[in-house]
Amino acid sequence: MSVTTVVLAGVGGQGTILAGDVLAKVAVAEGYDVKLSEVHGMAQRGGSVDTVVRFGDDVRSPVVDPGVAEHLIAFEMIEAARALRFLRPDGRLVVNRRTVAPLPVLIGDLPMPEDLEPALSAEGAVFLDAEALACEAGSPKSANVVLLGTAAYGLPFARETWCRVIGERVPPKTVEANLRAFELGSNACAKGVCEA
Fold first, then answer.
1. Rounded to whole angstroms, how far apart are CA atoms 155 and 141?
2. Which residues contact 122 (CB under 8 A, 6 or more apart)?
3. pLDDT of the residue at 195
4. Which domain holds residue 24?
5. Among the four residues 33, 50, 85, 126, which has the most C-beta atoms within 10 Å?
6. CATH number, domain at 48?
């Protein structure tokens, strides 16, 4: 198998690092060679966070070059636009319909970007409301696991492996809600919400 690259793009506090860790552990459990890298922005909460997971028979580097990633799972729309350069032309782009104002916007140095959804739609993006699905699952903080469910829909890993790793990785009291969140994300794709 050639190398598959998944980019998870969000901001600090959205759970992109946990999501990347789960994805990497699932790939390892399924027998793949895996490389994981994380790039953190200036702030712990609110700064850009990219997590790159690369898996295959022989992965030489955790670094993703522009135009290489098969999957871009964006936890919010500004980060989707920023990370779009990593996605290959025929890649899969899933975007959470949320916008987090970056620091330059908050302090008044820059205006809030406009028309993000139409611009991302023109790039083939599909959208979902991960926070709403997380609330439906019973855990408002599980939007990142909803987005893992959307990633899982396009990746070659067994559902049982996903569920086991999620169960091992999230706090014990939240396992049931997180598994529901994962299923809701995956089911949204199965119903066509997440298909380009």
1. 23
2. none
3. 47
4. 4-99+116-190
5. 50
6. 3.40.920.10
